[in-house]
């Protein structure tokens, strides 16, 4: 009887040690969160304030990689602006990105301005802050052939409201 209990305990001990490696391997597998990407786009309306007041209209598309710690947002926009009082029309094409949830946005625009008698093109580095659908930016237009009499903003502050009307959320599960 004593040998039977010893044999039974030996078999149980052998069984638990044989399967314990499997349990440890399963516990070692790293837990991974799914990859979530959000693509959204829509029109924007804004006001640019500098030496002159200018209304802005256009479209913006955003691509966001959602993460717990450092999510990244990239955006591209194109639009036009018009100064009703000085009769200056402008076109902007630009890009900005934001890393983190509450960080600043950094970007640049390619700009074209005309007062219907002369034109200027240039680039415009911008820095801003985006929360919800509002985007506050400040920048400096670096134009070709600078002229004192050309009625456009050199330094400006812009406030845009993006009306998101198309959103696509993709969730990719990790193995």
Strand order of the largest sheet: 1-2-3-4-5-6-7-9
Query: Looking at the structure, what is the overall shape?
Result: rod-shaped
Topology, number of strands: 10
What value does the Rg take, in angstroms?
29 Å
* Count, helices: 1
**What is the terminal-to-terminal distance?**
50 Å
Largest sheet descriptor: 8 strands, antiparallel, barrel
Instruction: List segments where confidence is low: pLDDT < 50 over at least 5 consecutive residues.
Output: none
Helix content: 10-25%
H-E order:
HEEEEEEEEEE
Mean pLDDT: 86
Overall SS class: alpha+beta
In short, what is this structure?
The chain is of the alpha+beta class and 175 residues long. The protein has 1 helix and 10 strands.
Description:
This protein is of the alpha+beta class. It has one helix and ten strands, in the order αββββββββββ. An eight-stranded antiparallel β-barrel has the order 1-2-3-4-5-6-7-9. Strand 5 and strand 6 form a beta hairpin. The longest helix is centred in the first third of the chain and has 27 residues, at 2-28. The radius of gyration is 29 Å and the shape is rod-shaped. It starts with a helix and ends with a strand. The model has no long low-confidence stretch (mean pLDDT 86).
Keywords:
175 residues; alpha+beta; 1 helix
How is the secondary structure organized here?
Layout (H helix, E strand, L loop, with lengths): L1 H27 L6 E15 L3 E14 L5 E12 L4 E12 L4 E11 L4 E13 L2 E7 L1 E2 L11 E8 L3 E7 L3
Antiparallel strand pairs: 1-2, 1-9, 1-10, 2-3, 3-4, 4-5, 5-6, 6-7, 6-8, 7-9
């Amino acid at each position: 009887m004593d040998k039977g209990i010893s044999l039974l305990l030996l078999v149980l001990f052998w069984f638990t040690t044989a399967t314990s490696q499997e349990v440890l391997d399963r516990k070692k597998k790293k837990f991974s969160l799914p990859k979530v990407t959000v693509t959204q786009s829509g029109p924007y309306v804004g006001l640019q304030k500098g030496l002159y007041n200018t209304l802005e209209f256009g479209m913006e598309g955003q691509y966001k990689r959602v993460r717990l710690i450092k999510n990244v947002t990239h955006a591209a926009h194109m639009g036009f602006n018009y100064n009703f009082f000085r009769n200056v029309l402008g076109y902007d094409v630009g890009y900005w990105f934001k890393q983190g949830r509450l960080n600043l946005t950094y970007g640049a625009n390619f700009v074209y301005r005309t007062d219907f008698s002369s034109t200027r093109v240039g680039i415009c580095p911008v820095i801003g802050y985006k929360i919800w659908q509002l985007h506050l930016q400040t920048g400096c237009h670096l134009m070709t052939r600078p002229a004192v009499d050309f009625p456009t903003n050199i330094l400006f502050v812009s406030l845009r409201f993006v009306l998101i009307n198309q959103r696509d959320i993709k969730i990719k599960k990790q193995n």
